[in-house]
Write a structure and sequence with these properties.
The structure holds two protein chains of two kinds.
Chain A lengths: L16 H5 L15 E7 L5 E7 L1 H5 L3 E6 L21 E2 L5 E7 L2 H10 L1 E6 L6 H4 L20 E9 L2 H6 L3 E9 L2 E2 L7 E7 L4 E6 L4 H12 L6 E4 L16 H12 L3 E4 L2 H7 L2 E2 L2 E9 L5 E13 L9 H10 L5 E10 L13 H19 L3 H8 L18 H11 L2 H4 L8 E13 L11 E7 L5 E5 L8 H13 L6 E4 L17 H27 L7 E4 L2 E4 L5 E3 H10 L7 E6 L18 E13 L5 E11 L6 H20 L5 E2 L2 E2 L17 E7 L21 H13 L2 E2 L6 H14 L5 E2 L2
Helix pairs in contact in A: 9-10, 10-18, 14-15, 15-16, 17-18
Chain B lengths: L3 E3 L4 H10 L3 E4 L5 H7 L6 E4 L6 H4 L1 E4 L2 E5 L4 H6 L1 H6 L1 H8 L4 H6 L2 H6 L6 H8 L3 E6 L4 E5 H4 E3 L2 E2 L5 E9 L7 E9 L10 E9 L5 E9 L6 E2 L1 H7 L9 H12 L12 H13 L4
Parallel strand pairs in B: 1-3, 2-3
Antiparallel strand pairs in B: 4-5, 5-10, 6-7, 6-10, 8-9, 11-12, 12-13, 13-14
Helix pairs in contact in B: 6-9, 11-12, 12-13
The chains are: A alpha+beta, B alpha+beta.
């Protein structure tokens, strides 16, 4: 029988909570280095323009200005996943974020003032702000750095996937539904604005970056490529990160710019974004148009899905362009499906470019898919809960795409939220004249054991115990607020019997820590956890051997508890720190240290995107109840019921935090958050008009973790971080449709969109209008 | 954002500063001012910080037979906590309750909300419905009274002269024949806190012992260049029984309210939406 767990599964508070709430946490904004300069970036005035001249003379004269650079002053490579993004723009501007010049000055104020003195002459061009326009033959080429691999000059990337016999599946369909869905731009709005401090040492030619990146080793590599340096000459230290959510997966131009200013001046340089700059110049969730056609047979089994996606790539290509990896998984494999054909195209425009954002395309896909499932249910006159239960994924299933569901809580998630929310009763409830209630269902599938998109999806750990019995975990994987440090410390406390207060996690310095691919894909607890458990196993073998020697016993089985190593058989014990001292200080003088590299069992997908890409898969279902004010169009989310297959609850407190935070991002995506653009310019770069929800908008959240104990995961756990926001917008939209009997194909469901839909439905006196505003 | 700040301590020091300074803005809670200056810096600006002035008439609250009087520096938080206001002037209470957030309400003042003269001012909207009077103090030490709907002269424009400061606000008590008061403030926006009204409506309706409306104050916000008093809608209600107004009368009333609206289309909503919602919520004020 498995050992009873003492620490894992308990509500241990986040280990860095105290320093954060007392203001003692050192964020990137708090870093001050001796002799440090302050950098600022001049961005284009026009989203599409020829840069005719740049006059720096007045700016250079300003006292306190130390250095100004433009594209002409630097010898660098492009950045970005496709290497199509110049760090400083030369000759033309293609996007409102475009960096034209950068200043380093003695103070922030002087740096800003200098920007105002730089005179740039532009010849304004008519930009392209619609992906369809960019595909026209008459459209000029927007990004000049792509190789022309695709048939159209403005295509940045394409994805094609299929499984099953689509034509046969269509023939076997009793009903087919087609819809076009339009998804908005959403921004991360991290609490800490973007920040970087670069310090180049002119003597040894080494660069130190204090960076909030989520992927320090890829960052090191990409930065080195951009700056034409050797990666190992760049040391990346991560201060405490005030929010990531995927926004820090790419390197962004301000980071190499900061390094360049430091290299030019030989002094440390810091660049901090203002909030407005953060809205304008940080990445967003990909806007896209999804055409989905799906079928169902007469018994209610899903037959096929055919998907065409047009993504507005913006002017440059970031990791955001690769979201179809994830999008296609949901379309191919969420609910059992016989046939699927998927095409996605990312098209250059003069709009702002997207990056990665928690969920990585999945909220968009799930919105379209789960909306169409409701429509299919209506078509065949089947209950919306029943059709989902009928088609839900199952344990042991290998999907058309080759995903192996060794454990699968999908059905249990659905059953839980249907029951707990009283769905069956509420979905047919009678309505008040003004305030109409509705309930909606949606599920999601996401990677739960990392995602093999890079050559290694692994993580290294070095573990040491010092002569005082304190444990240091040096993990390749770091913390961006998700609580992984706490979870790792809990695992060490569980396995080694060391008090949590005596466990330190060191994970912020690329010169010290071993390889890890980075914080993304809900992978840290899974991958870094498994890596740590591997190191613990090795170290315990060493410690147990020494303990056995010291006890003069032949026992080889020991329990580690309360700082003691206890023989299972004799119950004799010896203090852990004493064993470590004896290892260190008596012959043969051995360190209490162990290293382990964990690589998940997942496989790289083949060129047809088939293969088991993750070590395990997470499932979740949500039932959300809303109340729509038909006088104002306001949607109030009343209750959210969420059941999520988390594998195993490692820490209910932190898990609850991930669930609540994710859900609220999902509610924002559904109802309020949209970065509005007109001809390439952002209209609402502030919290005033970019409507993030506040504490007073939080609905009642009822969370039911489903434990499927995946053998691949640490203690059976799966990744949890992204899942909670993925089905939220879909469930809310289904709920609003249920309340009003009106259909929506666009997010967010702002009061105006909802009221317009209500008013059109009154005019047409038709309860199934297709509303697109 | 750079400015000089002067913090007078007394009323006479304040009047002195107003006399001397040429290019100044008043700062009360500064919740709007700082945002404005950040967006559009003024050169050589002096901010006269009103928050250090020790003057009970400028920041305190008093109830008399005639009604309420509070100073311009009375905060939104104090409105919210005031029992008299909560019980008898619900529209004003609700306007403060819906304003921004707990933190901002601690410093945001009535005077600031009025002098910003935003068409979407929440406290302003309630005070227009309540038929308040503004007391403007000039550097001569004399004051004059202006009816609140005359105080707002345009978008971000008020009747304040260069040598005047908004000193206090009076709100009349209910009529002697009033038995019940139906009073509320309806704010429409996207989220429940930190929201600028997309449309707002304040009503303060007094009925006699027969249930007949004897006095009505209806004001609309975010629907015209200023907060507006919907006079004809108010008059339409006089003599009608509040609790038995017909659907047809509700619509007629809503149409009259709507006649005061000339909303714009902006980033937060279209004119269509504002009108539609104003019509709908106008109908909804009767029980």
């Amino acid at each position: 029988m498995a050992k009873k767990l003492k620490v894992i599964g308990t509500p241990v508070p986040k280990q860095d909570a105290n320093i954060r709430v007392t203001g003692k946490a050192v964020y990137g904004h708090d870093i001050t280095l001796p002799n440090m300069l302050h950098g600022a970036i001049l961005r284009t005035e026009h989203p599409s323009a020829i840069i005719q001249s740049i006059d720096l003379s007045e700016a250079k004269k300003l006292p306190g200005v130390v250095c100004i650079i433009t594209a002409d002053d630097v010898d660098v490579n492009n950045i970005g996943y496709k290497r199509d993004h110049p760090i400083l723009k030369k000759g033309e501007a293609n996007c409102t974020r475009d960096e034209i010049a950068a200043v380093a000055a003695e103070t922030k104020e002087i740096a800003k003032q200098a920007l105002e003195l730089i005179k740039v002459k532009y010849k304004v061009r008519k930009g392209i702000y619609d992906a369809n326009d960019a595909l026209k033959d008459s459209a000029p080429q927007i990004n000049k750095f792509i190789s022309g691999k695709f048939e159209n000059k403005n295509i940045a990337e394409t994805f094609h996937y299929e499984h099953g016999n689509l034509e046969e599946a269509k023939k076997n369909s009793a009903h087919i539904v087609s819809r076009r869905f339009t998804l908005p731009r959403m921004t991360h709005a991290c609490m800490a604005t973007s920040n970087v401090t670069a310090s180049f040492n002119k003597v040894d030619k080494k660069l130190l970056m204090y960076s909030s990146t989520q992927v320090p080793f890829l960052y090191q590599r990409d930065m080195a490529h951009a700056l034409k340096m050797s990666p190992s000459d760049i040391r990346v230290i991560q201060p405490i990160i005030g929010g990531g959510f995927g926004s820090k997966l790419d390197i962004h131009p301000f980071e190499p710019i900061c390094a360049l200013l430091s290299m030019k001046t030989g002094r440390p340089v810091q660049i901090l974004f203002s909030r407005e700059e953060e809205f304008i110049a940080s990445p967003i969730r990909q806007p896209m148009v999804i055409d989905l056609t799906a079928g169902v047979d007469k018994k209610g089994n899903f037959t096929f899905r055919e998907i065409n996606i047009l993504k507005d790539n913006g002017a440059y290509t970031s990791w955001g362009a690769t979201t179809p990896f994830v999008i296609m998984q949901s379309f191919s494999s969420l609910y059992k499906l016989k046939a699927c054909k998927f095409n996605a195209t990312a098209v250059y425009t003069n709009n702002v470019f997207a990056g990665s954002f928690r969920g990585y395309g999945n909220p968009q896909a799930t919105f379209a898919l789960e909306r169409v499932i409701d429509l299919l249910a209506d078509k065949i006159g089947m209950d919306k809960a029943e059709i989902r239960l009928l088609n839900a994924n199952e344990k042991g299933e290998v999907t058309g795409q080759g995903l192996h569901f060794d454990t699968c809580g999908h059905k249990e998630c659905l059953e839980t939220v249907i029951k707990k929310s009283n769905y069956n009763k509420k979905v047919i409830a009678k309505q008040d004249a003004r305030f109409k209630k509705g309930i909606g269902l949606a599920s999601m599938l996401h990677v739960g054991g990392g995602a093999k998109i890079y050559r290694s999806d692994g993580c290294g750990t070095t573990l040491k115990i010092d002569p005082y019995g304190y444990c240091t975990i040096i993990s390749g994987s770091n913390e961006i607020g998700q609580g992984s440090e706490t979870v790792l410390a809990m695992m060490a406390a569980e396995e080694l019997g060391i008090d949590l207060k005596k466990i330190k996690v060191i994970n912020t310095d690329t010169d010290v820590k071993p390889w890890d691919v980075g914080v993304h894909a809900s992978r840290t607890s899974f991958v870094a956890g498994n890596s740590l458990l591997g190191a613990i196993k090795i170290l315990k073998e060493k410690l147990s051997k020494k303990a056995s020697e010291l006890m003069n016993s032949s026992h080889s089985e020991f329990d580690y508890e309360n700082g003691q190593i206890v023989s299972v058989k004799s119950k004799d014990s010896i203090a852990l720190d004493k064993v470590v001292r004896e290892m260190h200080f008596s012959e043969p003088n051995e360190l209490a240290i162990a290293s382990f590299f964990y690589e998940p069992s997942s496989k790289f997908q083949d060129k047809n995107f088939k293969g088991n890409v993750s070590g395990s898969y997470a499932f979740a279902s949500q039932a959300i109840e809303v109340e729509v004010d038909t006088y104002t169009g306001n949607v109030k989310v009343l209750d959210i019921y969420v059941a999520q297959d988390v594998g195993k609850v490692l820490n209910p407190l932190l898990l609850g935090g991930q669930i609540e935070g994710g859900l609220l991002q999902g509610v924002g995506y559904a109802l309020t958050e949209e970065l509005l653009m007109h001809e390439g310019k952002i209209l609402n770069p502030n919290f005033h008009n970019y409507k993030m929800l506040t504490a007073s908008d939080i609905p009642d959240i009822h969370f039911f973790p489903i434990e499927t104990n995946d053998k691949e995961g640490p203690y059976g756990a799966k990744g949890v971080g992204e899942a909670p926001l993925i089905p939220t917008a879909a469930a809310i939209a289904n709920a609003v449709c249920n309340a009003l009997g009106v259909e929506f194909v666009e997010l967010p469901l702002t009061p105006e969109r909802v009221l317009k839909a209500i008013s059109l439905s009154k005019i047409n006196n038709n309860h199934h209008n297709l509303i697109s505003l | 954002m750079e400015f000089t700040i002067i913090s007078p301590r007394t009323r006479s020091e304040l009047l002195d500063v107003i006399r001397k300074e040429k290019n100044f803005r008043f700062g009360a809670g500064c919740t709007d001012l700082l945002m404005e200056l950040k967006k559009k810096p003024h050169a050589n600006l002096t901010v006269i910080n009103l928050s250090q002035i020790k003057d009970v008439q400028f920041s305190g609250f008093k109830k008399s037979a005639k009604g309420l009087r509070f100073g311009a520096m009375f905060t939104a938080h104090k409105i919210l906590m005031n029992e008299e206001i909560r019980n008898n002037y619900t529209a004003l209470h609700e306007s403060a309750f819906n304003l921004a957030s707990t933190q901002i309400r601690q410093v945001a003042t009535v005077g600031g909300n009025l002098c910003t003269a935003s068409p979407s001012g929440d406290i302003a909207c309630a005070l227009v419905a309540l038929d308040a009077t503004c007391e403007l103090l000039s550097t001569s030490g004399k004051s004059r009274n202006v009816i609140i709907s005359d105080f707002f002269t345009g978008v971000r424009k008020t009747a304040l002269k260069k040598n005047e400061v908004l000193y206090g606000i009076s709100v009349p008590s209910k009529s002697k024949d009033t038995k019940d008061v139906f009073s509320n403030f309806i704010k429409v926006g996207t989220r429940r806190s930190m929201e600028c009204s997309v449309v707002s409506l304040a009503y303060h309706i007094q009925v006699n012992k027969f249930g007949e409306i004897i006095k009505a104050g209806i004001a609309i916000g975010a629907s015209a260049p200023t907060v507006r008093f919907a006079d004809s809608a108010c008059k339409y209600l006089i003599g009608k029984k509040y609790k038995s107004i017909s659907e047809k009368e509700k619509e007629e009333f809503a149409k009259k309210v709507l006649s005061y609206a000339s909303p714009i289309t902006d980033i937060r909503a279209t004119a269509w939406y504002r009108k539609e919602v104003l019509f709908n919520i106008s109908k909804s004020i009767f029980h």
